[in-house]
Amino acid sequence: MTPDRYVVPLPWDSDFLGFEVARLVPQRLGSSELAMCLTQLWKDGTRLVYWGSDPGDVESQTAATANQGLLVDKKTVFVRELHGFVPCAPERYATHSLPEDGWSDVLARLALQIGQYSRFHLDNHFSPETWQRLYCTWMQNSINRAIADDVLVIRDSGLIVALVTVRAKERTGEIGLLGVHESHRGAGLGRALVDAAMRWFLDRRLSSVRVVTQDANRPACKLYEACGFVVDSVENYYHFWNPLNDPV
User: Residue 25: which of 3, 56, 51, 46 has the closest Cα?
Assistant: First the structure.
């Protein structure tokens, strides 16, 4: 086996974090194969490696544990067809497209609430400042349309209290960030955001919708299930840290 064949460099992550980050692409690896890949990456100066593994493959899970992998996420992909879409929330919430210069402290706080279940928050190798900066950057890059096509918001008394980012990729719509301010949860705004996203996708004649979330984020999983989504795939997501380096 050639380790390089299974390694994908991650330049954005590396630039953002200030050290080399890579991802392993096979979902299944044995302990010796995984160890060979990691040993080579450590020699090359890589500091952090991500691995999305097959949770049903016992050998891969054993390999991750044997190589000091930190299980930080059960990455869950939900999908649904747009055909036959029926709104799942009352039409009492008006959604609006956010201007590209709409960044505010309110959105920064919402970004941090969205990031509470993220693997970067759960991995104690990252300082709070690091994962918070990551989610604020993600939010900013969505608002300026670098990684999203549109940002739909719900306001209360002029303030943004809920948000969803959407993107069209070929015939599939993608939901990125979705969050409701903690002061407005339990009022159906999550369903209203999903409905708004679905209408946005229908207007562009897309055929299906995809969203990635964390299995630990049970409120989000229950929301998508209630809106007709089904689980398409699950990955056990591990972080491997170079043992010669300190936390960040």
Answer: 51
Do 15 and 39 lie in a common domain? yes
CB atoms within 10 A of CB 131: 19
Q: Does 141 fall in a domain?
A: yes
Domain that holds residue 102: 80-233
How much is the pLDDT for 157? 87
Q: Is-contact 132 112, C-beta < 8 A?
A: yes
| Regions in the chain scoring below 70 on pLDDT | 1-2, 89-91, 246-248
Question: CA 241, CA 246: separation in Å to the nearest integer?
Answer: 9
Task: Return the pLDDT at 134.
Answer: 96
| Number of domains composing the chain | 2
User: Is position 75 within any domain?
Assistant: no
Q: Which neighbouring-strand residues pair with 154? A: 95, 162
